[in-house]
Amino acid sequence: MLLKEGLVRPEPLYLRGRYEEHLDVREQISYIREASDSYKGDHMDEKKKNFIVPLSLAVVLFLAGVILGFSIWGVDRREQVDYKQTLREVIDYIATIEHRNENLRERVGTLETDLAVAREQKQESAQQRTDDIASLKRRIEALQKENQQLRSALEPLAGEAETGGISPGQQQEPSPRVSD
């Protein structure tokens, strides 16, 4: 009963126990037929599935394409397309694009010249800064020399103030000081 419903697959006769050896030939043939029919049924179901799935996918894609095509291009086109008018519109659009392109080229050219001028000014200001720095260094050196001269001139006066005044004949050579 389970064999006919396809729930249990029969075992081959050579695997069965001894109690079936006594079956007659007709019973064995009917058993073999039932087993082969259930196997063929399972195999046919797999073939059908392998055939139906791609077929259904193709049908669904075809229908989607048809529906999408009608939604985009419409069912009927009763009005004729005026090609001359369309060409005029395209020509006007191209002229507008060319005009915009020319304006952009001019703007890019002015921006490039402004950039070149800015770079030159930057280089000039950098050169001016180095010149300013060099002149300030020379001035600092001159001031340091002048400071050294003033210190050397003040040392004899500082010595007189410390000793309370020395006569000109008693003056000694001042010893040189190490300055910072």
Put the structure in a nutshell.
By secondary structure, this protein is an all-alpha fold. The chain is built from 3 helices and no strands.
What report would you give on this structure?
The mean pLDDT is 78. With 180 residues, this protein is mainly α. The protein has a domain of 75 residues.
Furnish the topology, listing elements before pairings.
Blueprint (H helix, E strand, L loop, with lengths): L1 H4 L19 H49 L9 H81 L17
Number of helices: 3
Q: Report mean pLDDT, rounded to a whole number.
A: 78
* Shape descriptor: elongated
Order of helices and strands: HHH
The main β sheet shows up as: none
Beta strands, count: 0
Low-confidence stretches: none
DSSP strand (E) fraction? Answer: under 5%
Radius of gyration: 56 Å
Q: Tell me the span between the first and last alpha carbons.
A: 121 Å
Structural class based on helices, strands and sheet pairing: mainly alpha
Q: Helix fraction?
A: over 70%
What key phrases describe this protein's structure?
elongated, 3 helices, 180 residues, mainly alpha
